[in-house]
Specification:
By secondary structure, the protein is mainly alpha-helical. The protein is 75% helix and 0% strand. Helix 11 (201-235) packs antiparallel against helix 14, helix 12 crosses helix 14 and helix 13 packs antiparallel against helix 14 (293-322). The longest helix has 35 residues, at 201-235. It is globular, with a radius of gyration of 20 Å.
Length: 367
């Protein structure tokens, strides 16, 4: 019996199970965002670079794990990888609740990155494995929607929890227990198609380099944009609260764009590849030449649309081209590029000019 016939009776639950993983993968940084000030105060005697590593450490280990994901699939089946990743996700994520030493906290953040690195390729690759290409646009749009909404939900929930104590914010990772139950009940335990031995990682990168490069560039802009948006907004008199609200709006717009992606792909199949780049350029132009708040808001909306449409488009095209082997070929590379954009954005921002007050306001990446 093939995998398609096995999963057909519970295909809705299978879809929900895979999408629940998408909901979790963005929380590696989201839970830290509201609590970062309190964390910095708690570890007041710690070097600032170590505080910054709390944010960037997961992204680095996500990238490293993604590069070895194909070898991992040779050793374990899909459900085993998902359960191991989710167990590590819950333990390493919520384990920070008990931390009183910065070194232990950084080790847990690294392990959290390994966990997300195991889950992220599954969150998109399993969609390409179980469902036909004609459904990819709709499903990748839903995955992008869940990804963005996961960041919004985690940020709001962690913000409420950190009013109790800084370490309570890390309890949001207990949400992985729900996904574990779904995986146990509805995800088949199958050996995923392996990348051909003659197709090395570099050969795979050459084959899919347009999608990988596009994802890296899109994520770089997405995470750099809030810095310059905030600086320009503050110089125009926007309050910090209003700036933060607009940043949350950026994620909500991206989520809604992802939700609409499947329908738009049906209406504009030949033109969709131009929509995200056009919105990206228009959004950056609004920021570069903004002389009023309306232009700033327009730039925020356009960047949100570009991200919400660009990510599922790149995933859709790559998954169709990669076929059922996408989980072990192109999806780990796209996941590495996505987190590479997040990891590299602070390095790029160092060369950005500061605001008139000499301060740079930056949103903590939530993706």
């Amino acid at each position: 019996m093939t995998h398609s016939s096995q999963c057909q009776p519970s295909h809705r639950w299978l879809t929900l199970t895979i999408l629940s993983i998408s909901l979790l993968t963005v929380m590696a940084g989201a839970s830290v965002a509201p609590a970062l000030g309190a964390v910095r105060a708690y570890f007041a005697d710690t070097e600032p670079i170590l505080i910054q590593l709390i944010v960037s450490m997961p992204a680095l280990f996500i990238i490293l794990t993604n590069l070895f994901f194909s070898q991992l699939c040779r050793l374990m089946r899909s459900r085993t990888i998902a359960l191991l990743g989710l167990a590590l996700y819950v333990c390493a994520g919520s384990g920070a609740f008990f931390c009183t030493h910065i070194g232990v906290l950084l080790v847990l953040r690294a392990l959290l990155g390994v966990a997300v690195g195991m889950l992220l390729p599954l969150s998109t690759g399993l969609l390409a494995y179980y469902f036909p290409p004609k459904r990819m646009a709709h499903l990748m749009g839903l995955s992008a929607f869940m990804n963005q909404m996961g960041g919004v939900i985690a940020t709001l929930l962690a913000g409420l929890l950190c009013t109790i104590s800084w370490n309570c914010a890390f309890l949001v990772y207990l949400g992985g227990l729900v996904a574990m139950v779904l995986v146990l009940l509805f995800l088949p335990n199958e050996t995923l198609p392996q990348r051909p031995k003659q197709l090395s990682m570099w050969a795979t990168l050459r084959k899919f380099h347009p999608s990988v490069a596009g994802m890296l560039l899109l994520m770089l802009i997405f995470f750099i944009f809030p810095t310059h948006f905030a600086m320009t907004g503050l110089s125009m008199g926007l309050s910090q609260q209003m700036t933060t609200l607009l940043m949350v709006g950026l994620d909500l717009i991206a989520a809604l764009a992802g939700l609409a992606f499947g329908r738009l792909m049906t209406w504009l199949p030949r033109s969709m590849k131009y929509v995200a780049p056009a919105c990206l350029l228009a959004g950056m132009a609004c920021l570069a030449f903004a002389d009023n708040v309306a232009a700033l808001v327009a730039g925020c909306v356009l960047i949100g649309i570009a991200t919400g449409l660009g990510v599922p488009y790149l995933n859709t095209i790559a998954s169709i081209k990669g076929g059922k082997e996408s989980t072990t070929t192109v999806m780990p590379l796209l996941a590495a590029a996505l987190n590479g954009g997040q990891f590299l954005s602070p390095l790029v921002e160092r060369h950005a000019p500061t605001s008139s007050s000499g301060q740079t306001t930056r949103r903590v990446p939530i993706r």
